[in-house]
Amino acid sequence: MLGVIALDKAGEEAEWLRKLVENVPGWPKPMLTVCIHCDCQSAIGRAQSAMYIGKSRHIRRRHNTIRQLLSMGVVSIDYVRSKDNVADPLTKGLSRELVHKSSRGMRLKPL
Q1: By the 8 A CB rule, do 106 and 87 touch?
Q2: CA 36 to chain CA mean position, Å
Q3: pLDDT tens per residue, range 59-82
Q4: Is the peptide bond preceding residue 30 cis, with omega within 30 degrees of 0?
Q5: C-alpha to C-alpha distance for 62 and 69, rounded to whole angstroms
Q6: Domain ranges, ordered by start, for the chain
Q7: Structural contact between residues 37 and 80, judged by C-beta atoms closer than 8 angstroms
């Protein structure tokens, strides 16, 4: 469930950014699809599934929103393994080695 909520929020942000960039003069049109990287295969499967199995209306709305964004070509979802996910330091504590690896992945310079 949390994965679908996160995908919905990321999709909403991608749609907003896409609309913002569309108004920039000289920006190439049509806009490319925004790729969302997700490390939760079950969330990806749920988002791509046409059927929602659940009783919660607010989760159903989020499911429908991300499905609609996928079908319109606003976003695409790619699976990334947790160990290759450079956003991990922003969501949980990591060992020093993984912090250095993800910092290099984000192209941050060491102090």
Answers
A1: no
A2: 3
A3: 778 878 888 888 888 899 999 887
A4: yes
A5: 11
A6: 2-80, 83-111
A7: yes
